[in-house]
Amino acid sequence: MTQERNGREAWPPELTELLRKVDRLRRGGRYEEALARMRALTESYPRQVRVLLEMGMTLAIWGGQPAEALPWYERALELAPGHASGHLHRALALARLGRHAEAVADFDALAAGEFRKALVLYMRRAESLEVLGRDEDAERDWTRALDEDAGNPWLLHRRALARARLGRTREAVEDLTRALAAAEGEPVDAELLRDRGELRARLGDVEGARADFEAGRAALREGDPAELVEALRRGLGETA
Description:
Layout: E1 4-5, E2 8-9, H1 14-27, H2 31-44, H3 49-62, H4 66-79, H5 84-96, H6 100-111, H7 118-131, H8 135-148, H9 153-165, H10 169-182, H11 190-202, H12 206-219, H13 226-238
Antiparallel strand pairs: 1-2
């Protein structure tokens, strides 16, 4: 008889190598073969939480099918209600499907425990909170993410946008200035300059805004979106 621990079956040693083979197939671009193997494993090991999760991840991450992945995450969480990876991957799938309130509930469940990937949690929850219009909560999570990865330009940019929506314009400008400084040695980000220019203009700093719009136009690269090009052109006209 198979032994159980905490409501789950003991781990069969042979499963480790079987899942490694699936992962090699997925990473090698052989998705259909990987999926077929995972389906067979779920039939042979229907109460193994990791097998159920790997099935969901195969569908959601490698197959781009978050809706099809959700039932597998649900099955895993029925067997192990507090499973951190289960909550994380279900939350990510829900967010991709636009079900952000449900995604936030899963992220909250993770935050209430001892989830090791705090940066991922805060980033992804902040994105869902923004969609829900909860900018104060989103700003809080961008700040927590920055506590995990201080000085990250992308995180600073996202917090700046949240702060701008909250009317905290000067703090938003400070974040964008830090983001631009953090990217020193790399190509200048015209989007950061556009956003800082617009915020400086809002504060009445016409000279600073124009300098940002000029620098932004100079930093444009082939393939940059037309709306970015137009925003910089318009900004220069408004600060002339």
